[in-house]
Specification:
The chain is an alpha/beta fold and 113 residues long. Helices cover 39% and strands 31% of the residues.
Length: 113
C-alpha cells in the first residue's frame, strides 16, 4: 500500500493510490495533498485504478481533501474507480461531489488550459 505523486507537463498533480484507502493510511494522503497545496499546486487528480477498497474513513478523508482544495482555489478530480468503488460513490451520493473520470488521462485532460 502506498501513494505515488507526479506533476505532469500541464501542471496537474497526479496521485496514484496503490491498494486500499483506509483508516491506517488516510492521513498520509491528506498530508500529501496539504503539502502540495502549500507548494502552490491547485489542480489534482487522485487515480484509484490500482485501488481495490476504500473504507468510510477513506471516504471521509476524500471529502475533507475536496473541501480543503476548494477553499484554496483548487480543483480535484478522481479517476479509475472500479465498478465496486463507483457503486460506493453512487450509494453515498459522493458521485455528485466529485468529478469522476474513467482514466487518469481523461481526468488530467478535463482541466481547462
Amino acid at each position: 500500500m502506498g501513494f505515488s505523486a507526479t506533476r505532469d507537463a500541464s501542471g496537474v498533480y497526479l496521485i496514484r493510490v496503490e491498494g486500499q484507502l483506509i483508516v491506517g493510511n488516510r492521513q498520509e494522503l491528506k498530508t500529501a495533498i496539504q503539502e502540495a497545496l502549500d507548494h502552490g499546486e491547485r489542480r489534482f487528480v487522485i487515480d484509484f485504478s490500482r485501488t481495490g477498497y476504500i473504507d468510510s474513513s477513506g471516504l471521509g478523508a476524500l471529502v475533507s481533501i475536496s473541501k480543503k482544495v476548494r477553499e484554496q482555489g483548487g480543483e480535484l478530480r478522481l479517476a479509475g474507480l472500479n465498478e465496486d468503488l463507483r457503486s460506493l460513490f453512487e450509494l453515498t451520493k459522493l458521485d455528485t461531489l466529485f468529478a469522476i473520470s474513467d482514466t487518469a488521462e481523461r481526468a488530467v485532460g478535463s482541466f481547462a488550459g
